[in-house]
Amino acid sequence: MLVSAEEMLKKAKAGHYAVGQFNINNLEWTKSILLTAQEMKSPVILGVSEGAGKYMTGFKTVAAMVDAMVDSLGITVPVALHLDHGTYDGSKACIEAGFSSIMFDGSSLPIEENVEKTKELVAICKEKGISIEAEVGSIGGEEDGVIGAGECADPEECERVANLGVTMLAAGIGNIHGAYPENWAGLSFETLDAIQQKTGDMPLVLHGGTGIPDDMIKKAISLGVSKINVNTECQWAFQKATREYIMAGKDLEGKGFDPRKLLAPGAEAIRETVKEKILLFGSDGKA
Ligand code: 13P
Description:
By secondary structure, the protein is an alpha/beta fold.
């Protein structure tokens, strides 16, 4: 059964560790992440961008697949199925489709509109027992067509949005989706500290988990980050392993062309990446 992310994130905040959100693209991705979370006895959040939802033929398909897979694989750790960077309409569609968690990303809207729409969705989610993430300040870079300038969030605005009853809050602190540039200034811990002081027990979310050095991840967790999103790193792991398989000519040997064989090294590589992140975030053994 899919669960809201509320309880796992409250526990993470109190226990000073973070739960990973790993984005999914297809069946292989989902299976690799679920099996690894189970092996590591870790709660897990499966992230679905609107683009990935569309790719998988719609949110209903995704919810049905994940729900059934949790059951078929005998997964007993808490699993939340979460919309990543949702629009207002996308959020409503996911609630309807059976997601157990949503993110409404109103960060590109004027703050008053972000507040209004977030408030409206909070009321719907509360009624249905679904967790909801809001965003203030934008995450830099591009993810599935969602482009952000990467400005740091205003701690006063964070306090305002946190008080709307959201479950978790994503705040821009210099983080970027995808690869970090050579001249990246690093995370703004000053901003994170100020946000945490204004938002108290609210679990904070760090997007753009790919490529952030381990010491920065640990410091962010010590300053109140309880959910860390990782997407690109699993894509790179999958691509690298698949490339190696083909470059070694393994797809030409025997039945190496069988899709189950062709996709296996990539799926295994995702498992390794997820395992490393779970250990780094400290959520192993916390289910
Ligand atoms: P990365 O692709 O940089 O890991 O970011 C993932 C993310 O923040 C999803 O919302």
